[in-house]
Structure formats: structure tokens, C-alpha cells
Write a structure and sequence with these properties.
By secondary structure, the chain is of the alpha+beta class. The protein has two domains: about 80 residues; about 60 residues, Beta Barrel (OB fold (Dihydrolipoamide Acetyltransferase, E2P)). The protein is built from four helices and five strands, in the order ααααβββββ. A five-stranded mixed barrel has the order 1-2-3-5-4. Strand 4 and strand 5 form a beta hairpin. Helix 1 packs antiparallel against helix 2 and helix 2 packs antiparallel against helix 3. The radius of gyration is 30 Å and the shape is elongated. The termini are far apart. The C terminus is likely disordered.
């Protein structure tokens, strides 16, 4: 096989793998690494077998086509489906007034393993237990509020506060 053909095939394979990584497989994983490796391999083969000028040309072609790919794909109909179109300004992660919950007592509405829901007065809030599992109906206290995250701990009942058996 002619080395020029091999270099062209490696560049095309690299670009195809990058397109698959962009459009089919979410994230950056093995396919993306293989695509980049194919482009690097094309540069190495071109430099060793066809000379430094061909290696530089293969590298330049790989960079330009990859940049063009990342420019063109988001502007296609399929690419636009992967881009967030709406503006996120003005939205809030936390409900207003959660800061006032710190230190208050409530009751677990669902098991907290470690996340669940708790009732504070007439308000049900999503909470996270501080490292322990809490059963439904257990008394809890809010330790801290960090944005949308409300951290709680169970309120332990002391042994001497429990009613005596048979009394």
C-alpha cells in the first residue's frame, strides 16, 4: 500500500471517529482518543515515510479539518440539538427562604439514605442526612444550608427521657 494513501486513510479515520464521539457517544472517551491517535499516527507515518514536509502537511491538514469539524458540526441540525439554546440567567437553584431553616427541627417524611424529604412545619423540603441513615418519622435538625443543599442530622432522644416500662 502506498504511504500517501495510508496517511489519507488515517486522517479520514481520525475525523470519522471524532464525529462519532461528538454526535453518537456522549463525553470524551476511547473513541475520541482513538480519533486523535489516528490523526497523530497519520502525521508520524507521513514524517517517517514521506519526509518532514509531508509530515508537516499531514499535521496541518489534520488540525485544519478537525477545527473545521468542530466549527461546522454545532451549526448542523443534529449539532444544534446538542447545544443549549435557552438562557440560564435569572434562574435560581435554591428556593427562597431556605437560609432561615438552619437550626430548625423537623420530621423525616421519607427515609434519608442519605437524601430524602423532611417536613418543617407545613413545608416539605429535600434534605441530605449528614452521614447517617434516618428512618421515616425520625426527628431531625438542620445543620446548615448550602444553596439548594439542606444538611440535617437526627435528633437523638436520651435514654433517661424515654418513659419507663410499666409506668
Amino acid at each position: 500500500m502506498n504511504f500517501t494513501v495510508l496517511v489519507v486513510l488515517l486522517i479520514v479515520l481520525g475525523l470519522v471517529l471524532l464525529v462519532v464521539e461528538l454526535l453518537v457517544i456522549p463525553g470524551f472517551g476511547v473513541i475520541g482518543v482513538l480519533g486523535i491517535g489516528s490523526l497523530v499516527g497519520a502525521t508520524i507515518v507521513a514524517t517517517r515515510e514521506l519526509g518532514p514536509a509531508s509530515g508537516a502537511l499531514a499535521f496541518a491538514i489534520g488540525v485544519v479539518l478537525t477545527a473545521l469539524l468542530f466549527y461546522v458540526v454545532p451549526r448542523t441540525r443534529v449539532g444544534r440539538e446538542f447545544v443549549l439554546a435557552s438562557d440560564q440567567r435569572g434562574s435560581r437553584a435554591a428556593e427562597p427562604g431556605r437560609e432561615g431553616l438552619e437550626g430548625t427541627h423537623g420530621v423525616a417524611v421519607t427515609p434519608l439514605r442519605p437524601a430524602g424529604s423532611a417536613r418543617f412545619g407545613d413545608r416539605v423540603v429535600d434534605v441530605v442526612a449528614d452521614g447517617v441513615y434516618v428512618e421515616v418519622g425520625a426527628s431531625i435538625r438542620v445543620l446548615k444550608v448550602e444553596g439548594a443543599r439542606v444538611v440535617v442530622e437526627p435528633v437523638l432522644v436520651k435514654q433517661d427521657e424515654t418513659p419507663a416500662a410499666g409506668a
